[in-house]
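Team,

Forwarding the record for the chain on the shared tracking sheet. I've put the sequence and predicted structure together so nobody has to dig through attachments.
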Amino acid sequence: MASVRLAGVLLAALLWAHWAPAQGLEFYKRGTLEEDQLEAFIAPASPLIKNEQCRIDSLLYLAHLRNFTLWAVKMFDASAKVPVGLLAGSTFQMGHFDECLQVGSEEAPTEVVPLTAPVKAQYCLARIVIEPEHETYPGFNRIDRPHAFSLQYDPRASAWEKFMIPFDPSKKPRNSFHWATCIPSSCSAADLQTSLDAALQPLRKRHAVSLKVAVDDQLCTLAGHEPFHTSDFVVMQRYRKIEDMVLLNGTLLVDTFFVLSGFLTCFGILLEVHKKKNISVPMLYLYRWMRLTPVYMMVVAFYATLLNKVDSGPIWKARVGLEKERCVDNWWTNLLYINNYVNAERLCMFQSWYIACDMHYFLIAPLIVIPLYKKPKLGLALLGGVISLAIVIPFAVTFIGEYIGVLRVYMSLLEDPPSNKNYFAVYMKSHNRAAPYFIGMAAAYLYGILKLSDIKIPKKIMWICSLVATVLGLSSMFGAWVFYIPGREYFAFENAAYASLHRVGWALTVAWVIVGGCTTRFGILQPLLQIHAFLPLSRLTYCAFLTHGAVQLYTLATLRQPEFMSFPKLFWMASGDITISFIIALFVHLFFEAPLGGIQKMLLKKKASNRQRNNGRAPIREHTVNEQPPLSLVATPPSEDEVRDNVEICATDSGENNTVEASTTGNTIDDVPVLIEQTTV
């Protein structure tokens, strides 16, 4: 009963500051504490405090708290209230560090803030040790305890049993905890200790408990002379800084992989046509579907059946449960690769739109590449027409629908991307994302022409083209800043033009890096484009793409309390996501993707051999992209070592928390990998 009354007193302290002081005072007079005793919990305003300035500032704080003034309420809001989770070992009641230190350290004068708060705050952690007196719980210090070396406690016993000082050194004491308090900066740690000790004195007598207070100077923090901002302010401020477009417009990096995928697909099909002269396009489609789909649907099945059983958390059902429902209802759209059009607002696997887009572009690619080989003029006309349409369509969609020209990465988007209108209506649609892929195909054709002619681009031209590509890339990336300016007037033409052209500008930059690096090279930058250390990971990228979403969902859905985020911590968490995703991808690849891929190759080789025997001809041997391409299009390929240097493409997706690498070295055309991307939240 004593512990219940003690908890009631602490709860009463919270109610006192949030509701009318007059009503609160009458309640407490009828209850256990007087007003001055309650105030001592909040600020060192007691007459026992010898520091006159501390008392003056504390009284001013309490007066403004009654008036519900913002700065005073922020100080109280930043202080710990009723302890939470003490029995579970949560012995640090941290309050809100940043909110406390912001009081009195505001950026002023500004148009909105003419003056700072009249009191500057400091953040202190007081250590409180609680034990019952003998008459309250006689057995508190006894030696014979059934739970002395057990992890179990009798739920029908007194809660004091778990507050006992443990004999087992592996157990954490629960009777000692830290209490965050936001007080005026003019007060010392000793002032706070005196105030809290006096405030707790009536509780000691009334409830027969021992309450010891200690405040260490090292656990009190003052803000510096520069303006101090809370974490929410820092996040919102990031949306206003042009240099942060590297992160906020980081979704543009996804188009890097569309360019790479288009390049490899075009180059690979050209080689296939050259070797076989006539290829079966339907079989090409079938093999592509067979290569991607089995492991893909295995992951979808995991989402729909087992993922929600892995763990639990406060928002587990709201996040993982929602993902399960979407996969149960819409798995068939993933199977048919129409999930970015059909029921797109309830997308199963938030990153799976990319696979659908890549599949759609692959269906078009042979219809362009085959004419490029047999009738180059017709092929170039088709390719140019498709690229032109891919530029015009996003402009029209954005202009008519009055959409924003860039996907703005606000917190509301990160909470659930598929439910965002701009995300499912514009961002994930194949017709809005096609330009980079087909620009990559054009780059592959140009690469072949340059290699055929053995052309080395002059250094002057390299510098000029590199400068132009740099301007294009930076403009595409940082141009999104204007769309983050709060309150800025909406201009439909401006948004439509940026939505249409910024992906083209970025794709041209990437295409130049590929073509320039594979033909003439970039001098000192070339080693960065030829890092071999990541080659072993290249086989795992598809599985990592499929599984990383579950890793991120798990991290979010198992959170028990909010976490303060900073850029170093974001980097640390992103590194963890990448590492865990590739570890899981290794097992998925070994147990599913590799065996299924081997079976498919065996079946297709057997079918091809039977077909050649029926035709009375020797089977066409398997060839690789290292072999000679068509002389009318591309140059005689170099040796295997040279191919590694020239046709190896390494891409690091820093904005999307993935490192992805694709190489044509040693792969058959059927093994041209799907280059992948990751979408954040």
